[in-house]
Amino acid sequence: AQKITQTQPGMFVQEKEAVTLDCTYDTSDPSYGLFWYKQPSSGEMIFLIYQGSYDQQNATEGRYSLNFQKARKSANLVISASQLGDSAMYFCAMRELANAGGTSYGKLTFGQGTILTVHP
Amino acid sequence: DTAVSQTPKYLVTQMGNDKSIKCEQNLGHDTMYWYKQDSKKFLKIMFSYNNKELIINETVPNRFSPKSPDKAHLNLHINSLELGDSAVYFCASSPIPGQGNTGELFFGEGSRLTVL
């Protein structure tokens, strides 16, 4: 079963406007983390923002904010004041804690990604 | 100084050949990963090692064999390459989550493998 779902294959936004990229997740683990990564056309994976399942407030990092709605199991990324350089693929990911041999570790599962295009 | 570095960045080879991709991290992390990104950009975990021990093996064909000589290195060897192995392979590392950090993945730049 898909654990992370990004329903928007592509999104378009005008420069300087705000845009919301959707992400829903599925887990029965009470402790988990949600991440957003950006992958520009050059291919590298860039970490943007993190939200812990127990965090009371929505995470913010500069122009990025995470609209975390725990009951709805959604973690949408909001980019304010879009710039041309924001054009990229965006991935939502969920980390669930697991244990092996007495050591806890995190495994990130990624969504399908959303291609964001910012128009001048 | 690159945090997670993988070599080579590009690899073009014939079907049936054997090839290796190397990965090194200088972040002091205990956990390292290999992810495969296919032509549709879907990222899927293949393996994870924690302090040289294999902890995740996601039903990857046994033609793929990871090796971790120490916790700073995780190499990927692929035998008898097939056309479907063409992809971008990302190495990543992370600290153990919960020790004052998020457990985010730090990715290498990726290695693009093309099998002809």
Task: Record keyword descriptors for this entry.
heterodimer, A: 120 residues, mainly beta, 4-stranded antiparallel sheet, 12 strands, B: 116 residues, 7-stranded mixed sheet, 54% strand
Task: Describe what you observe in this structure.
Chain A is mostly beta strands. Chain A is about 0% helix and about 55% strand. Chain A contains no helices and twelve strands. In chain A, strands 2, 5, 6, 10, 11 and 12 form a six-stranded mixed β-sheet that branches. Chain A has a four-stranded antiparallel β-sheet with strand order 3-9-8-7, with no helix packed on it. Chain A has a two-stranded antiparallel ribbon with strand order 1-4. Chain A is globular. Chain A starts with a strand and ends with a strand. Chain B has no helices and eleven strands. In chain B, strands 2, 4, 5, 6, 9, 10 and 11 form a seven-stranded mixed β-sheet that branches. Chain B has a four-stranded antiparallel β-sheet with strand order 1-3-8-7, with no helix packed on it. Chain B has strands at about 5, 10-15, 20-25, 30-35, 45-50, 55, 65-70, 75-80, 85-95, 105, 110-115. Classes of the chains: A mainly beta (about 120), B mainly beta (about 120). Chains A and B meet through strand 5, strand 6, strand 10 and strand 11 of A and strand 5, strand 6, strand 9 and strand 10 of B.
Layout: helices, strands, pairs:
The complex is a heterodimer of chains A (120) and B (116).
Chain A: E1 4-5, E2 10-14, E3 19-21, E4 24-25, E5 32-39, E6 46-52, E7 60-61, E8 64-69, E9 74-79, E10 88-100, E11 103-110, E12 114-119
Parallel strand pairs in A: 2-12
Antiparallel strand pairs in A: 1-4, 3-9, 5-6, 5-10, 7-8, 8-9, 10-11, 10-12
Chain B: E1 4-7, E2 10-13, E3 19-25, E4 31-37, E5 43-50, E6 53-57, E7 64-70, E8 73-78, E9 87-94, E10 106-107, E11 111-115
Parallel strand pairs in B: 2-11
Antiparallel strand pairs in B: 1-3, 3-8, 4-5, 4-9, 5-6, 7-8, 9-10, 9-11
